[in-house]
Amino acid sequence: MIVAERKPIRRVLEAIEPYQRVLVLGCRGCVAICSAGGDREVETMAAALRLARKRAGRPLETGEATLIRQCDPEYLAPLREWADKYEAVVSMACGVGVNLIADLFPEIRVYPGVDTTFYGANTALGEWQEKCRGCGDCILDLTGGLCPIARCAKNLLNGPCGGSQGGRCEIRPEVPCVWHQIYERLSARGELDRLMNFFPAKDWRPAGHGGPRDRIREDLKMDK
Amino acid sequence: MEPRSHLHRVLSEGHFAVTAEIGPPKSADGEVVRKKARLIKGYVDAANITDCQTAIVRMSSIASAVLVMAEGVEPVIQMTCRDRNRIGIQADLLGAAALGVKNLLCITGDHQKFGNHPEAKGVFDLDSIQLLDMVRRMRDEGKFMCGEDLTGARPEFFLGAAANPFADPFEFRVKRLAKKIAAGAEFIQTQIVYNVERFRKFMEMARDMGLTEKAYILAGITPPKSFGMARYMKYFVPGLDVPDEILKRMKEAKDKREEGINLAVEIIQQVREIPGVAGVHIMAIEWEEAVPEIVKRAGLHPRPLEAEVRPAVVVEVEKPVERVEVVAPPAEEVPEEAPPKVEIPVEAVKEVFSTVRSSIESLREGVNLLHDSLARLERALLGGEVVPAEVPEVPRVEVKVEERPPVEEKPVEVKEVPEEKEKEVVEEKKVEEEKPAEEVEARVEEKPAVEEKPPVEEKPEEKPAVEVREEKPAEKPPVEEKPAPPAEGVEIGSFSGEYRPLSERAAGLPEDLYKEPGTAFIREVEIGKGEKAFKVGGTNVLPFHLFEGEMRHEPRVAMEILDVKPENWPESLARYFADVLDDPAAWARKCVETYGAEALCIYLMGTDPNYLNLDAQHAREVVEKVAGAVDVPLIVWGSGHAEKDVEVLREVAEVVGDRGAVIGPVEEANHRTLGATAMGYGLPVVASSPIDVNLAKQLNILLENVGVALDKILMDPSIGALGYGLEYTYSVMERIRLAALYAQDDKLQVPFICNVGREVWKAKEAGLPSDETMGDQEVRGVLMEAITSVALALAGGDLFIMRHPKAIELTKLIIKELMQQN
C-alpha cells in the first residue's frame, strides 16, 4: 500500500489560515489502512483544526467526508457539490488524491493533510516498512524477491557494501542488510552463482527519471 | 604493457608498494594538502586522496591531486558514486586524466547519513562495480557508458577498488572482490587490517580463486593514535575488526603513539609475509607525520623507484618560508632537495601544532555531531519543522590537519550520544502511535483440565483453619488470610512500560493546541463521615486527562454485600465469601479487613417485594449490624422497588443518620419522599435514571426542586455490563460528562455512581462453567467486572460498586496507574 503520515498540524493550519469553512476529505484506500487518512484520522484532523482555530479566536467550520478512493475521478464526483460549501479541502489521501483533485477541480483549493512516505507493508501492528520503490523495472526475480532498490540505502546492485556487519545495515543497526538477506536466500537455494553475475547499471528512466510516468492500455479505453 | 602509473610500475616490477592517505581540508586552503604531500614524499609510492570521506564536504579529490602532484607525489584519486551520476563522473574523470592523474580508486562511498549533510540526496546512480566497469570501458574500449565512442585521448587510469575482508557475509567478500576485479580493478585497497588471522584467511581464499594473479592487493594499515581511537574503531566503525589484544596493548601502553606505530609496523611485517599481498596502504588518520616513521621502521624506506610526476598544470603558490615552485615535467630531483630545506626546529614545532590542531578538530567534530543529533531530535519531535539549530562558533583556530570522524578519546564519548538519541527518537515515534505506553498484564493461571481440582479440595482444609479463628475481631493482618482463597485462579500482574508525559511527547506544540480543560468542575460529593470519609467528583476534565486539568479525587470502589445470602452467585465469586455469606456483619468485616474495601454498599435485595419481601425492620437490623462492624463509608441500596424503598430507606436513614451513608436508588417516582428523607438526615442520594441524558438531568432538577443540593447527589445512569449494553452506557455517560464540562450544563455537574457488580455477575457468561471456548470461569468473571468498571471510569464514572475482590484489585491498579500519569 501507499503509506502516509499525518502532516504536522501546524503546517495544515498554515495552509488553511485564510479560510473559515474547510472540508477534511479522507480516503478509504491505502491511507485508511495505514491509519493516516481514513475516517478516524479525518475526524481527528478536523477536531484538531477546529480546536486550534478556536484557541486562536478564529473558529473554523469543518466538514468531514471520506471517499472510497481519491485516485479515481468517479469517486471524486461528489466534490463538485461540496465544493460550494467550503473554501478549501484538506485531502487526507496520498499525494495522488491531492493531485487528481487539483487536476479535476481547478477551482478547488486543495491542501495535503498527510505526507506520502512510501510503498510499504504493514509488518506488525503500528509498523510499516518500505518494500518497493516503483522503479519500473523489477529485478526481484534475480534477488530472491528482496528489493535492493528499495531496501539498500545505497541502491547497490552488486552488494553488499563494506558496511554490512552481522547482517545489519550500517545506516541503522535495526535495519537488516538486504544484500546480506539476498545472499542468504540465494545461498540456501544453491543459487549463489547468480550473485557472481555482474549487474549492469540500471536504466533509471522507468523509475521516473525520464519524467512523469503513465500507463496506457488501449483495449481498456472507452473512446476506441 | 607499459605501466599506467608510477604506482603501477612499482607493483608490476614486484616491489612491495607503499601508499598513504591524504585527507583534503574542509577549506580552500591548498597549502594544507601540499604540506601533507611534503610530509610523506619519498616515503610512499603514491598518495591516495579521499573524495569527501565519511560524506563530509572537503576540497575535491581531483583538485587536491593536482596540488599533490605539484609537490612531486603521485596521487591516487578517489571517485565515489554518492555525489555524482554517470554524467558527472565521466566528465570529472576525463578532466582528472587531462590534469595528469593516473590512478583512480572506484568506491561506492560512505552514505551521506554519516557526514555533515545528512539531508543530501544520495545519488548512487551506479555502484562501485558498475563504476569500475564504466571506466574500464572508457579506457579500453573507448566507449562512454551509453555506448557512444570516446574519440581522442582516453582516460588511462590504473584502476583500483576497495575490499573489506572483515565485513559480512565473510564467504562472499572474496567473491565480491572477484567481481570487482572482473569489472576492471587492477589494484585493491583493503579495509584496515588489525585481525591478521582473518585477513590471512581472506588472502588464502583470494589466492585460491586466482585473484592475486589478477590484481595487486594492498593491505590497509592504520596506526591507532590512542586507546580511545582503537576503541572507537572497534565499536563504532561498521566493517572494522579490532581484536581485543590490540585494545589491550593500546590501553596498557605508556606511550600510546609509540605503541600505535609499533602496532602498525608489526602488522605490516605480518601481512608482508602473506603470499599475494602486494603492498600496504597506510591511513594515518589525522596523523600523517607518523607515515615516514612507520615506513622507515617497517624497513620500507627508501622507496625503490623514484616517482616521476608530471602534472599537466603548474601550480604556483607563493610560500612564506619553504620554496614551492614545481615546474611541470622535470620534477625528478626535487624530492632530494626538499627535505633538507625544512629545518628541524620547524618540524618539531609543526608536530606540536599539528597535534594541538587535531585535538581541537576532534572536539569540533564532536560538537558538530551533538548539534546534528540535537537537530534530528528536534526534527522528530516537531514533525519536520526544525528551527535551524544555531551552531555556535567553535573557536576557530585555523585547523588544517584533516581527519576522519572523531578519533580522540573525547569525541568517542560524544559519538555515542547521537546514536542513543536516535534510538530514543525512534522509540518516541512508536509511543506516539498508541497513546499510553502502559499495558496491563492480567496474567491468568491456566487450569489445564477439570482434574486439576485437587487444589480446590485442599483449600477447604486450609480455610477453615483461618476461618474458625474468625473470632479474632478486627486486627489480623492479611498475612495468612490473603493467600487462602485465591490460591489458584486469577493472578494480577502489574503495569509495564513507562509513562511519558504528554507535555514531553508533544514538545514543541503550543499547549493550547492540545489542551482544552472544561469550563466547570463536577461537584464534589462527600461519601461517609469522619476519618474514612472520602470525596468523589471535583474534576474539570474528561477522565484521566490530567495533562489539561484536574481530577481532585480518583475514582473509588465500594464493595458490595447483601442483606441475605445470595443464591445465584457463581462459585468463582461466592467462594471468596463462603464463610460469611449469611452474616452481613462478618461479610462486611471480611470485605474491609481482608480485601481492604474503602467503602461498602449494602444491597437490600431481600426487601424486594418480588423476592423475599423482607420488611424494613430486617433492613434496619442488617444496616445496624454492618454499621457497627465496620467504619468505612456505607451506601445503602434498596431493592429498586420505588414504593418499598421509601419505607425501607426511611428506616435505614434513622439508623445511619449520624454515621452517614449514601442512600438510593432515588427515582422519579419516589424522589419527593426519599429526597425529603435524605435531606432530613443530610444524606447523599443515588439518583437513578434509565440510561438517558435528559432523564438523568430531569431527576437532578426534580431533586434540587425538593431541596436536595446537587452536591448531595450521585447520578446512577443505570449501567449495562460488558456484553450487555456497556457501550450504550458509556456513550450516555460520556455525553452527560461533556455537557457538564463543556456546555455549562450545571444540572449535570454531578459525579457518577456505577453499580457494576450486580450487572456483571448476573450475566450468563459470568456463571458458565470453565471450558475450552469460554476459558476459566473465574478469570472470565473477574475480567468482565474489571473491564466494565474501567471502561466506565474512562466514561466518567466516579464511584463503582463491585463484588469480586480480584476484579476490584485489578480495577484499582489500573485507576492508580492512570492517575499517576501527570
From TrEMBL, chain A:
The residue ranges of the Methylene-tetrahydrofolate reductase C-terminal-like domain are 111-205
Name the domain of life. Answer: Bacteria
Entry protein name: Methylene-tetrahydrofolate reductase C-terminal-like domain-containing protein
What species does this protein belong to?
A: Thermosulfurimonas dismutans
